[in-house]
Specification:
Elements: E1 11-18, E2 24-31, E3 37-43, E4 50-52, E5 58-60, H1 63-73, H2 81-97, E6 102-104, H3 105-119, H4 121-131, H5 137-151
Parallel strand pairs: 4-6
Antiparallel strand pairs: 1-2, 2-3, 4-5
Helix pairs in contact: 1-2, 1-4, 2-3, 3-4
């Protein structure tokens, strides 16, 4: 860490404490050359996550977009905003823990359906009908039949 006063690369840590939001560490440092003190902040580096869409295009992961799609599937259902936030947090955590820099929309969709199936079956079917692009009533009925078999 370079001293902002004399550009010396050597300093010693005088004090360390977490910030109010507990997301970063605040460090007071003292330059070994000029003895002036300065503050630095340390935080966990997250890997920027890119989403690879079906057409091959890429865009940054957007948790709000994920939340909105889940909210639409759960519209007028007994699924709380807190539950949706928890699902989004869980999915984001799984994606970050995978350490992959790019993730396919198919993986995100499957994770969404996995969570929705446990939370609300009607929301799951709504989401699946859009995600899997059911072309007709037969494919929709096949999905429902599969779901009923799994319940038995």
């Amino acid at each position: 860490m370079k001293c902002p006063y004399c550009a010396c690369e050597e300093s010693k840590v005088i004090d360390s404490r977490p910030t109010d939001d507990k997301e970063r560490i605040r460090r007071r440092r003292e330059c070994t050359d000029c003895s002036k003190r300065f503050t630095t902040y340390e935080m966990i580096e997250t890997v920027p996550l890119m989403v690879v869409k079906k057409d091959g295009s890429r865009e940054s992961f957007d948790r709000q977009k994920l939340f909105n799609s889940l909210r639409r599937a759960c519209d007028k259902r007994a699924v709380s905003v807190e539950e949706l936030e928890r699902i989004v947090d869980d999915i984001e955590q799984v994606l970050q823990n995978s350490m992959a820099r790019e993730v396919a929309t198919e993986m995100i969709g499957e994770l969404c359906m996995e969570h929705l199936k446990r939370v609300d079956e009607v929301s799951y079917v709504r989401f699946a009908s859009v995600y899997r692009e059911f072309k007709d009533l037969d494919t929709f009925m096949q999905e429902l039949a599969k779901m009923l078999r799994e319940k038995e």
